[in-house]
Amino acid sequence: MSTAPRRIRVLVVDDEPLARQRLRALLEDIGTSTVVAEAGTGQDAIAAVAQERPDVVLLDIRMPGMDGLEAARHLAALPAAPAVVFTTAYGDHALAAFQANAVAYLLKPVRQDQLAQALERAAALSGTRLEALAAAGHGDGGRTHVSAVIGGNLRLVPVAEVRCFLAEQKYVTVIWPGGDVPIEDPLKALEDEFAGRFLRIHRNALIAVAHVDGLVRSPDGGWRVALRGIDRQFPVSRRLLAGVRKWLRG
Questions:
Q1: Is 150 helix (H, G, I), strand (E, B) or coil?
Q2: Residues 202 and 125 both lie in one domain
Q3: How far apart are CA 103 and CA 99, in angstroms?
Q4: How far is the C-alpha of 211 from the C-alpha of 131, rounded, in Å?
Q5: 92 pLDDT exceeds 80?
Q6: Measuring CA to CA, which residue among 232, 230, 174, 223 is closest to residue 198?
Q7: In terms of domains, do 75 and 166 share one?
């Protein structure tokens, strides 16, 4: 006795309700998938993936806050990442999407035959770790969040709330008021990505310039940076002290 093929579990992500409704209608006509959830932002998409574990994410690119490209990069860090199909009204992100190893890049209005083909390819790739996507560049403005996989779940930290990136042994630790989170990003890559927002004060530390409270003399005669919102201070290397002081003077 033959069994029916397993239906593809799909998450639909778009900040426009009418666009989500149209994608739902196309998926229903194709008949091979089940929409398990909808989301209107990149952050909501990540939360929905954690809860619903879809096979495929239909992901708009231009959305308020975290855009689709950034959301896809965070999702790619999961051990069993869903396959991503970008859907967008703009063609100017196509190169970035394909460099990020997207399964498909569909321009709106999305055609049913193109969507059906993209679903087939996406279903074949779902459950794999898309290494190229995780390693892709983060765009000119940098990410709005950094992420880590902890206990199989994706943990997001808003970059605006980060106080310090601290390199310790094999990992970089994100220090923020919500605690310490280990990430795999190299410190130099973070320095380049967030240039102007974070200042190197030591070979192993970048501090958020927006949260600097000042320089504090330490008992050993050195200097430390105090940061608002946390009770920790971070040493400034002698080599970088002059540059830190210059920055503080504006």
A1: strand
A2: no
A3: 11
A4: 33
A5: no
A6: 174
A7: no
Range of the domain at 218: 162-248
Structure tokens of 180?
Answer: 């310490």
Q: Are 176 and 166 in contact (CB under 8 A)?
A: no
Q: Please check whether residues 126 and 186 belong to one and the same domain.
A: no
- 166 and 123, same domain (yes or no): no
Query: Token pair for residue 197?
Result: 């927002």
Question: In 3-state terms, what secondary structure has residue 141?
Answer: coil
Sign of CA dihedral 97, 105, 102, 149: positive
b/e code 220-244 from CB counts within 10 Å (16+ = b) = eeebbbbbeebeebbbbbeebbeeb
> 19: which DSSP letter?
H
Instruction: State the pLDDT confidence band at 140, using cuts at 50, 70 and 90.
Output: very low
Give the number of residues written for the chain. Answer: 250
Q: Is the pTM of this model over 0.85?
A: no
- Give the contacts of 184 (CB within 8 A, at least 6 positions apart): 148, 171, 172
* Residue 93 belongs to some domain of the structure: yes
CA distance linking residue 185 with residue 163, whole number of Å: 16
Bridge-partner residues for 233, per DSSP?
A: 226
The reported pLDDT for the residue numbered 77 is 83
